[in-house]
Design goal:
two-stranded antiparallel sheet; 3-isopropylmalate dehydrogenase; Isopropylmalate Dehydrogenase; alpha/beta; magnesium; globular; binds manganese (II) ion; 13 helices; binds 3-isopropylmalic acid; manganese; 2 domains; binds nicotinamide-adenine-dinucleotide; NAD
């Protein structure tokens, strides 16, 4: 298969983790005779430095032409002054909007070895297999903003269309899993949440085979840590989803492990680990690349339809977590390149085993 893949390494550890994911994609391409054409573009702080814009027109145009986009991370202290006119994060929001990727899938699984390192009791982590579906192009991230000397506001607005399409995506995904959707809102206080909940009830009528439950976001923040194995698909609005998925990283053992896929109506998607640019460890070769590598697996699955290749990467990552020296964020000594080399070796091993069979 030929695929046109745009790389946006971005800032901080973004270039380090993206290079790892690209090495894995190249290994998959060689093994399966795919022709992946990679084109790199600037986004975020490095793009502001080079062009003045966080999402330069050339980057935006390339992404709109691509089969899929793989992003590292944006942002950092250099561009964090509240008075600064251009912000790296704004470039990412503009890209999500331009691509129309309203559904952000954030799967959370707990590898047994990482479970032993989690601050949560291992017995609570057994069987945890969550899929967050975070609404990505609406809510307070995209509402009107005001600011004067004495006050500031961020409008949180949702239309029925925006709510319904992401809920339908969550229900569709639940059908291929354990058939349960938990819709998370703050319907006891917020009007947008009341609209969200009413829409969820209406959409659920089209999915009699899927069980819908509602949870208020404050209580969900607690249940996620006390009863994580009870949940399957969790669907929620943009800001709640941002916060709850960083919390869910505690279940997995580290933020550095979690991937994401952002999808719209078509096949084109934006893939990125859920972590940020980690300025505290950038440039030291110690970032965990697994979130990026698993994002590459999601890219193969969702944008290119290469399910078995995606599985190969996931199995290789599991094998590395089973047997190899762990990365620093999981208490080990392995650096970014060590983990990347271990994943490549696990892939080569599985390819050799397949060839011998
Ligand atoms: P962060 O996710 O960058 O880092 C939080 C903590 O997790 C840090 O201690 C960091 O060292 C650690 N960490 C994160 N990823 C890791 C990895 N792969 N391996 C090992 N450790 C890892 O969050 P932050 O520090 O709050 O934000 C830093 C910058 O990143 C901010 O400018 C923020 O806006 C931006 N950000 C960008 C994205 C994105 O581009 N998608 C996501 C989140 C934050
Ligand atoms: C994420 C990040 C972004 C978000 C920021 C950098 C805009 O935290 O992808 O989780 O809040 O969506
Ligand atoms: Mn976030």
């Amino acid at each position: 298969m030929k695929a046109n893949l745009v790389l946006l390494p971005g800032d901080g550890i973004g270039p380090e983790t993206t290079a790892a994911a690209v090495a894995v994609l190249r290994a998959i391409a060689t093994r399966h005779a795919h022709d992946f054409v990679f084109t790199e573009h600037a986004i975020g702080g490095c793009a502001i430095d080079a062009t003045g814009a966080a999402l330069p027109a050339a980057t935006r145009a390339a992404c709109l032409q691509a089969d899929a986009v793989l992003l590292g991370a944006v942002g950092g202290p250099k561009w964090s002054d509240p008075a600064t006119p251009a912000r790296p994060e704004q470039g990412l929001l503009q890209l999500r909007a331009a691509l129309g990727v309203f559904a952000n899938l954030r799967p959370v699984r707990v590898h047994p070895r990482a479970a032993a390192l989690s601050p949560i009791k291992p017995e609570r982590l057994a069987g945890v297999d969550l899929l967050f579906v975070r609404e990505l192009t609406g809510g307070s991230y995209f509402g009107a903003r005001t600011r004067d000397a004495a006050s500031a506001s961020d409008e949180c607005r949702y239309t029925v269309v925006e709510i319904e399409r992401v809920l339908r995506r969550a229900f569709d995904l639940a059908r291929g899993r354990r058939g349960r959707v938990t819709s998370i809102d703050k319907a006891n206080v917020l009007e947008t949440s009341r609209l969200w909940r009413e829409t969820a009830v209406r959409v659920a009528a089209d999915y009699p085979d899927v069980v819908l439950e509602h949870q208020l976001v404050d209580s969900m923040a607690m249940l996620l840590l006390t009863r994580p194995a009870d949940y399957d698909v969790l669907v929620t609005e943009n800001l709640f989803g941002d916060i709850l998925t960083d919390e869910a990283a505690v279940l997995a053992g580290s933020l550095g492990l979690l991937p994401s896929a952002s999808l719209g109506d078509g096949r084109r998607g934006l893939y990125e680990p859920i972590h940020g640019s980690a300025p505290d460890i950038a440039g030291r070769g110690v970032a965990n690349p697994i979130g990026s590598i698993l994002s590459a697996a999601l890219l193969l699955r969702h944008s290119l339809g290469l399910e078995s290749e995606a599985r190969e990467i996931e199995v290789a990552v599991d094998a590395v977590l089973d047997a190899n020296e762990l990365p620093r964020d999981l208490g080990g000594q392995a650096g970014t390149q060590d983990i990347t080399a271990a994943v490549l070796a696990a892939l080569a091993h599985s390819h050799a085993a397949q060839a011998a069979a």
